[in-house]
Design a protein that fits this description.
- The structure is a single chain.
- By secondary structure, this protein is an alpha/beta fold.
- The chain has helices spanning 4-29, 33-48, 63-71, 116-119, 164-169, 188-198, 216-234, 246-251, 259-270, 273-304, 307-371, 377-430, 446-449, 470-481, 485-549, 552-575, and strands spanning 51-56, 88-92, 97-102, 107-110, 131-138, 147-151, 173-180, 203-208, 241-243.
- The protein folds into two domains: 50-271, Rossmann fold (3-Layer(aba) Sandwich); 308-535.
- 63% of the residues lie in helices and 9% in strands.
- Strand 7, helix 6 (188-198) and strand 8 form a beta-alpha-beta unit.
- The radius of gyration is 29 Å and the shape is globular.
Length: 576
């Protein structure tokens, strides 16, 4: 039998869902479609009694494997570069299935093994398929009480809570599973991500994953360092940091480590599902009410002003937005210059590396070829190419590791310059004196913005098991007969050069792609804000034009209606 507390909680959830759906209705009537969609989305989730635990952390921290381990089976694709705007929600379902929600709002059922086609950068570059989210249903006991695990590979943006991803999912997050590692340890970008999420939710569970890849001393140092950094950044104690290996758990091998404690912590969240869901409803209600009140104020002022003045203001807004577009183009040119400067700087380091490593690598290959048995031509080619691979790998991989650190530092420096340029643009926009422009943040911060994950695609050192073609095989047989090993050796030297050049160029390509993607996101976010402000102002102007044409009585009635709706929103905000 339900207790009085559970009845009260259920009534509060019902009230919250009802308020959000009413807010969505008002927003739709006012032309604020983004607010309407977001309010409806939160209201629907509250009605279903779902609470969301977002798994956050940088790329390659093992988040997908961790979520697989929590639900007890392999569900999510691992080792893929994610599409940052496509979150994946794992929720309870009696039958295993998956569905994709498009940006149009339509749902499409897909096979479980086809998820990667929608959430990976390889199969859905820059989200060209227009995917808004993916839901996976599994019969996992952990999820039965309403918990949903959310894989959010790209939480955060240049403007906190202003990208499409954060607009849709930060209000839905009720708790966060923060995943980091010991090698490398917690980064500044990850700290910024945790701080952003902590500004919206109180319940954070911290996990140091891949514990099987480090020594006890390394893990202890990483945990101590991470705890100090997190508590300093958040200004409070953070509780336990669970040291686990998600891969060991999935493969059912190795020690359990802190896995029981992690499971208990998540089960503890499940016992407070009502509180967490209600908190999400209240957060969403308060924020969206505030935004909608600003929209209604614009509508009120349009009714009170002479129509000619409103039309002049609309013309000014269009001019300001046109100027903003030009500013974005200027910003792009400046950033391109920074990108080119970075490319040149990296190119010099790459050339210096290649100049220094080529003589050593060639000497090692020459010595290796001398020691190879001179048997048949095909077997000599296989041995020669394997030797070239081993030498290249021995020289390149340590350099790639150090160069990644250099690239990260260079990227951060460029990002800081871009942020300064963007902030100057934002200050000029905020000084335009137009009501709608107040929604634009005054500043953008580096840690909130440039979290584009590294995509260092290093060349795979694929073992050559056989010659590339029958013709090559026959040619090698002939070379072996005539003792033409120098020809095969020359091919091995060319292969070594290919390995060195390819790997050196990959790092530069990755860095440039990160810079381009961050620039694209910033520009897209600003343009989305400008489009929304234009839509709200145009709706207010059109409503004022129609109402004023109907006479003063119609204007008075419209103002009275606005007053009533504003009063209703203020009451809803009080509940939040």
């Amino acid at each position: 039998m339900p207790t009085s507390d559970s009845k009260t909680e259920s009534a509060q959830l019902l009230q919250g869902a009802s308020g959000l759906l009413r807010l969505a209705e008002i927003a739709s009537q006012s032309g604020a479609q983004r607010i309407a969609q977001e309010a409806k989305s939160i209201g629907d989730r509250v009605t279903e009694g779902l609470f969301y635990v977002a798994c956050v952390g940088q790329f390659k921290r093992g988040k997908s494997t961790l979520l697989d381990a929590l639900v007890g089976e392999r569900i999510l694709p691992t080792g893929v570069v994610p599409v940052t705007t496509v979150p994946t929600v794992i929720r309870f379902g009696a039958q295993r299935r998956a569905r994709v929600r498009l940006q149009t709002g339509a749902w499409t059922e897909v096979a479980l093994n086809a998820i990667e086609q929608y959430v990976s950068e390889e199969h859905n570059p820059q989200n060209r398929k227009g995917v808004a989210g993916v839901e996976v249903f599994v019969p996992a006991p952990l999820l039965e009480a309403g918990m949903c695990l959310v894989d959010t590979p790209g939480l955060g943006s240049v403007f906190a809570a202003n990208t499409e991803t954060t607009r849709e999912f930060i209000p839905h997050i009720d708790a966060a599973l923060v995943v980091f590692g010991a090698d490398p340890p917690l980064s500044g970008d990850e700290l910024g991500l945790v701080a952003e999420v902590a500004g919206h939710v109180a319940d954070l569970v911290f996990v140091l994953n891949k514990s099987d890849r480090t020594t006890d001393a390394e893990r202890s140092a990483a945990v101590g360092f991470s705890r100090r950094m997190l508590e300093e950044r958040l200004g409070r104690a953070i509780g336990p940091i669970f040291q686990v290996s998600a891969l060991e758990q999935v493969e059912q091998r190795g020690p359990v480590r802190d896995w029981p404690g992690l499971a208990q912590a998540l089960e503890g969240l499940a016992t407070h599902s009502g509180r967490l869901t209600m908190a999400a409803a209240q957060r969403g209600m308060g924020r969206l009410c505030e935004q909608l009140l600003n929209v209604l104020e614009e509508e009120r002022q349009a009714l009170l002003r002479p129509l000619e003045e409103s039309e002049r203001r609309m013309a000014t807004l269009r001019q300001t937005i046109a100027a903003a577009e030009r500013s974005l183009a200027d910003l792009g040119h400046l950033f391109t210059a920074e990108q080119q400067r970075l490319s040149q700087r990296f190119g010099k380091r790459r050339d210096a590396f290649l100049e220094g490593v080529r003589p050593m690598a060639r000497q090692e290959l020459a010595a290796g070829l001398q020691s190879q048995l001179r048997g048949g031509g095909p077997s000599f080619r296989r041995a020669a190419l394997r030797t070239a691979q081993q030498i290249a790998q021995r020289h390149i991989l340590p350099w790639l590791e150090s160069e990644q650190v250099q690239a990260e530092d260079a990227f951060r420096s460029t990002a800081q310059r871009f942020i300064e340029l963007a902030n100057d643009f934002l200050r000029r926009m905020a000084g335009a004196g137009l009501p709608g422009l107040a929604a634009i943040p005054e500043t953008a911060s580096l840690e909130e913005g440039f979290r584009t994950e590294s995509r260092f695609y290093f060349y795979d050192f694929i073992t050559i098991a056989r010659p590339a073609s029958p013709f090559r095989y026959l040619a090698d047989v002939a070379l072996g007969v005539v003792r033409g090993y120098d020809t095969i050796g020359a091919d091995a030297f060319q292969f070594l050069e290919l390995l060195l050049e390819t790997n050196a160029n990959r790092v530069q390509s990755d860095l440039e792609e990160r810079v381009r993607e961050s620039r694209r996101r910033l520009e897209a976010e600003i343009r989305a804000l400008l489009r929304e402000m234009t839509a709200v102002a145009e709706h207010a102007l059109e409503h004022a034009r129609t109402t004023q044409a109907a006479g003063s009585a119609a204007v008075e009635a419209a103002l009275e209606r606005l007053g009533s709706v504003e009063g209703e929103l203020r009451e809803l905000r009080k509940v939040a």
